[in-house]
Design goal:
about 800 residues, mainly alpha, three-stranded mixed β-sheet, three-stranded antiparallel β-sheet, 32 helices, 9 strands, about 60% helix
Length: about 800
């Protein structure tokens, strides 16, 4: 059926220049015949053109001319540019042009045609699709019908009727479901089926009305596209039924509870239902509140049960597994619901139990260096740290800092374990480094706090850590490649430098390091000169050239002494006066070497002659210098002939003085030895103890025992015999005595007092006038060693008494510098 058209104007011809024009109706595809007008109207237009006999401009209106003109051209014109009744040559020579004007009022589609098309074709097809029956019209034909109605300005009526039909259909489906008495599971299956069917039907219907959707509805701001319209119709009818909403939400929550309890559920059905709610955005808040309420109650109970029954690692793995399962379970929900559910889950599983988790087994994980488990803990604490008001990383930082404090305190504060202090600290530093870098992902706050805690705890016991670090370095430099590989030596020295940075009393370290280095050089105990230089280079980088100036000077003295002895041996007069004794002398600069006590010994004539010979030789070329002989570090190699075997004995000078006395007699008392040697009683007892009670007993003590008394006597051991020819008995000489340690510490304390006095005078000279509090603050900043406040006050009073500074007469809290 072709719709009749009413028109108020037709074609008019004018000799004017043609302009671009367009017809009221566009010629489009198969539907163009319906919009050409009646036969009478077409004939009137043709006659008007014949009478005018005016040429038409070639190509004029070719892209926008009316449909009526195109029909005439195809029937009566010889070419697109010719005038009716003329041949092509005449048309080309004509100067007259044809102007085609559109209808003044567009043609109107009758309502009767719209109603018949809707009722007889489109509605029938829609209901067939909804009832899952075959559609007796082709989809292309239906598409063209929709296009005709759209071109006839019937879009609003078409959308309204389509919406009403969809609403009627879904209302019928949902009402039937609401009236039925189904179980909860069957009810959910029915909801899912209705939604899936409706969704599929909506897609098919939209394909028929695609022209309406694309050309009109999408470009109209006040209209929804057809698919959204269909979804809103479903939401409107679904939410209007309280029973269906409540039953659906209860059913979904029930499926969640069953899945959490480990029961088997139809997960595909569960996900389709969640997708339906998420995509339609219906009752999001009601569904969200129901799920959140159930989740909160469930995990509040479960978290407490698991935390009480399991260790920390098992609980953390349970939390990680539950978070993964819940994330998968709620992946189809609306994003806002997913976020809210994640927050509830994290609060009940993590945020509420952070303190309990750390208290239950955190220290054990650190002790066992369980990096992977600590990574899991750190990762979960990172999740908890994102919650407002929860500073999980700070709690982890404080717990790790407390762990470091306790462990360092156990290592440093136990005097019985002083010998193992430094190795244990190095092991703990390695463990702390691994935990910070690998387990805690180089978290700067945790790294810095734990480092500061370790330094503070190491220095809580003053002086001892510095002393034992120096002692451990001495052990490493003595052992060298004998016990360690090259890589192990480098690595160990680097770790010791890191530990050295933590120590405040670096002057204590310097004093003990100098004393140990002196013994290594005196007794040739250093494993490698390169290793020594490497260590000094590291110390110079850390503390500057002034710190290592003495150490470098000690090596320089040893090298110069080698040259001096070479010259001494080349001097025949001097070398000939030694009487066959191989003499080696180290000439030391007093300011470089540790302070040594001055002793007056009774040397044998042979040794005394050697001493005088070298003194005369040295002063010949260094007349302005003074030599002071230090016997405490001197060593001798004696050739001892026993009845059974001859041995070479490496002994200290003190031991050699004692043994040489037995060349004259076989038995000597303690007092006789003391008078003959001139040794102090402490040194004499140490020497006798090593000769008579050590591993190589070249003399025997009477009575037997391990303590030397004044009433003891000593006898030459004629039965002494050992497998080795060369025996070392002076090992005790290379060891530090308690007296030496005390003396070294006291020397450092005296130097500290001088440094404090110098710092006070230097500051006051610069400032001239200062308050007491400001002076104390600057002293604390400048002094690099531990300095108790009472000691600083005492030194200020000392300088006031000695007129370096004075108090302000008007204000006792101010000091003035006295020039």
């Amino acid at each position: 059926m072709s719709p009749p058209l009413k028109r108020s104007g037709g074609l008019s011809v004018s000799p004017e220049r043609s302009h671009s024009s367009s017809s009221a109706l566009s010629s489009h595809g198969a539907t163009s015949d319906k919009f050409l007008g009646t036969k009478k109207q077409r004939l009137e237009g043709a006659n008007a053109q014949k009478k005018s006999q005016k040429p038409i401009n070639r190509g004029a209106g070719s892209s926008s001319s009316s449909t009526s003109f195109q029909r005439q051209n195809s029937r009566g014109m010889e070419s697109p540019g010719s005038v009716i009744g003329q041949n092509p040559a005449q048309a080309r020579n004509s100067s007259k042009k044809l102007l085609i004007r559109p209808f003044s009022t567009p043609p109107q589609m009758p309502d009767e045609y719209f109603n018949q098309t809707w009722e007889n074709e489109l509605l029938v097809a829609i209901r067939a699709i909804q009832d899952k029956k075959p559609v007796r019209f082709s989809y292309e034909e239906l598409y063209r019908k929709v296009e005709d109605l759209c071109r006839g300005n019937k879009t609003t009526q078409l959308v309204a009727k389509l919406e009403a039909e969809c609403e009627k259909h879904i209302a019928k489906q949902l009402q039937h479901l609401e009236d039925s008495a189904l179980s909860q599971e069957d009810f959910l299956v029915s909801i899912d089926r209705i939604w899936e069917d409706y969704f599929s039907e909506l897609l098919t219907i939209r394909s028929i009305f695609l022209f309406l959707d694309r050309k009109y509805v999408i470009h109209t701001t006040y209209e929804k596209n057809l698919f959204d319209m269909g979804v809103q119709v479903f939401v409107k009818q679904f939410t209007a039924r309280t029973k269906i909403i409540d039953t659906s939400i209860k059913g979904i929550v029930s499926l969640i509870e069953k899945d959490r309890m480990g029961e088997v559920i139809d997960k595909s059905l569960f996900k389709r239902l969640l997708t339906m709610f998420a995509s339609t955005k219906m009752n999001t808040s009601q569904l969200e509140q129901s799920i959140l309420s159930v989740t909160t109650n469930y995990f509040r109970v479960k978290s407490l049960e698991n935390l009480q029954e399991n260790d920390i690692v098992t609980y953390l793995r349970y939390v990680e597994r539950q978070m993964s399962l819940e994330s998968e379970r709620i992946s189809c929900l609306h994003p806002s619901t997913r976020r809210a559910l994640s927050v509830v889950l994290e609060k009940n599983l993590l945020v509420s139990h952070l303190s309990s988790i750390l208290a239950k087994g955190f220290d054990q994980l650190c002790d066992e260096t369980r990096v992977e488990d600590l990574k899991l803990l750190y990762r979960l604490f990172g999740v908890a740290d994102l919650h407002d008001g929860c500073d999980a990383y700070s709690m982890l930082r404080d717990s790790f800092g407390e762990y470091v404090r306790e462990k360092v305190d156990q290592i440093v504060s136990n005097p019985e374990q002083d010998d193992a202090m430094v190795p244990n600290l190095l092991d703990f530093m390695d463990r702390r480094k691994v935990l910070c870098e690998e387990a805690f992902a180089n978290n700067e706050a945790i790294e810095d706090f734990s480092k500061q805690t370790m330094e503070k705890q190491i220095n809580k016991r003053q002086n001892k850590p510095a002393e034992y670090v120096a002692k451990h370095i001495d052990h490493i430099l003595k052992a060298g490649n004998k016990k360690y590989s090259e890589d192990e030596l480098t690595s160990t020295l680097d770790k010791l430098i890191v530990l050295f940075r933590c120590i405040q009393g670096k002057d204590i370290f310097e004093a003990f390091y100098e004393r140990d280095l002196a013994k290594r050089l005196f007794f040739d105990r250093s494993a490698s000169r390169d290793l020594e230089n490497n260590m000094i280079s590291k110390l110079k980088v850390e503390c500057g050239a002034s710190f290592t100036r003495k150490l470098e000077g000690m090596f320089k003295d040893v090298d110069l002494s080698t040259d001096i002895m070479h010259s001494f041996r080349e001097n025949r007069r001097s070398s000939g006066a030694l009487g066959g004794i191989d003499l080696k002398v180290n000439v030391l600069t007093t300011s470089f070497w540790p302070t040594m006590a001055k002793e007056e010994l009774r040397l044998p004539r042979e040794l005394n002659d050697c001493q005088e010979t070298f003194t005369a030789f040295y002063l010949e070329s260094h007349k302005s210098r003074v030599l002071r002989w230090q016997y405490g570090s001197a060593t001798c190699v004696l050739s001892a002939t026993f009845p059974k075997r001859r041995h070479l004995l490496s002994v200290s000078l003190y031991q050699s003085l004692i043994l040489l006395l037995f060349n004259e007699v076989e038995t000597l008392t303690y007092k006789e030895i003391l008078g003959a040697t001139g040794l102090s009683e402490s040194e004499l007892k140490r020497a006798l103890l090593s000769l008579a009670c050590g591993r190589h007993r070249v003399i025997l003590k009477q009575p037997k025992g391990k303590v030397v008394d004044e009433d003891d006597s000593f006898v030459y051991n004629s039965g002494f015999e050992k497998p080795l020819v060369h025996l070392k008995i002076n090992s005790i000489q290379a060891q530090s005595t308690p007296e030496e340690k005390i003396e070294t510490t006291e020397t450092v304390f005296k130097e500290r007092i001088h440094h404090i006095d110098l710092a006070i005078v230097r500051i006051m000279k610069m400032r001239q006038i200062m308050t007491h509090s400001r002076l104390i603050t600057e002293l604390l900043e400048q002094l690099k060693f531990p300095h108790p406040i009472p000691l600083l006050k005492k030194r200020i009073e000392y300088l006031i008494e000695n007129l370096y500074i004075e108090r302000d007469p008007t204000n006792q809290q101010k000091y003035k510098y006295l020039a």
